[in-house]
Amino acid sequence: MLTGRMQKDEALEERGYAKDCVDAVASTAGDQEAADSPKLEMESKSPETYPLLEVTDGKTLMENLASTPSTVLFVFILLATVEGTADAVKQYSLLGSRVYRCTVDQPLFRAVYENCGDLNNEGCRSALLKLYYYRI
Amino acid sequence: MPWRETVEHCELTAEYSATANFTFGECLAYLAASSDMEESVKLLKGRRWLLDYDPRASVATRLMLRFFGVGRGRGWKKLKTCLSLSFHGSFGRLY
Questions:
Q1: Closest among A116, A49, A133, A3 to B32, alpha carbons compared
Q2: Which residues of chain A are within 8 Å of residue B64 when distances are taken between CB atoms?
Q3: Closest by Cα among B46, B68, B44 to B58
Q4: Residues of B with Cβ-Cβ distance to A49 under 8 angstroms
Q5: What residue segments make up the domains of chain B, in order of their start?
Q6: B82 within 8 A of A2, measured Cβ to Cβ
Q7: Searching chain B, which residue's CA lies closest to the CA of residue A96?
Q8: Within 13 Å, how many C-alpha atoms sit on residue A22's CB side?
Q9: Set of chain A residues whose Cβ sits within 8 Å of the Cβ of B84
Q10: Are A92 and B63 within 8 A, CB to CB?
């Protein structure tokens, strides 16, 4: 669904009808209520995410949970910058800095998180460039 | 400029294309970030096929260029290919 290849029913058939899967599919389709459970879990494990999750829609949340490979995460960060959604950029980069701790990626994602509150500032451009040159 | 030297000795093989498309992307991003938009657009138009050789390099570079005000970003079809190549098979609990 996230890549536009499946409709809701097809996604459910593909992934099964366990509660987590049903919630994930419903969240991706925009159901805020279904997104509450993974949000609560994320908040309890990482309080730093609280202000970001408050403004996150179900689809962005599922993109976050699905984008384990850092290349995907980086593409989502770039998409969010092009769309001008600084909150999503911060959320993805925070995720990256947590998932890739103890790797070279960690400080690069962290720099994007710290500098990209305003997408037009020089620090944000520089942080994105560093991540691009490392990831590409 | 290293890119010009590279072009002079260019031999079109799969291995060359697979390596050069990432380097070409880096070069375009450097030009766009240095505000040399004209050169970046010129190179992108002239060698679009090289950048498109690998969808991952193509998508990341074009989005980066778009962020710096060059080009129109990446088409949805290519983006889907890029994401599908790299998406995790299942939803992990990451936090």
A1: A133
A2: 78, 128-129, 132
A3: B44
A4: 95
A5: 2-83
A6: no
A7: B94
A8: 4
A9: 3, 5
A10: no
User: How far is it, in rounded angstroms, from Cα A28 to Cα A67?
Assistant: 13
Residue that has been written with the tokens 């309080």 in this structure: A47
- DSSP 3-state helix, strand, coil percentages of chain B (rounded to 5)? 70, 0, 30
Residue with token string 């459910």: A12
DSSP code for B93: -
Directed axis angle between helix A70-83 and helix A86-99, to 10°? 160
Tokens 């309890």 belong to residue: A44
* Cα–Cα distance for residue pair A108/A100, rounded to 1 Å: 10
Query: Token digits for A30?
Result: 């925009």
Q: φ and ψ at B75, to 5 degrees?
A: -65, 150
In this structure, what DSSP letter does residue A94 have? H
How confident is residue A125, by pLDDT bands cut at 50, 70 and 90?
very high
Q: What is the pLDDT of residues A6-38, one digit of tens each?
A: 677 777 776 666 666 777 777 777 777 777 777
- Of A64, A77, A66, A50, the closest CA to residue A134 belongs to A77
Q: What is the pTM of this model?
A: 0.70
Q: Which residue has the tokens 């994320």?
A: A42
Q: So what's the ipTM on this one? A: 0.73
The answer to whether A98 and A49 are in contact (CB under 8 A) is: no
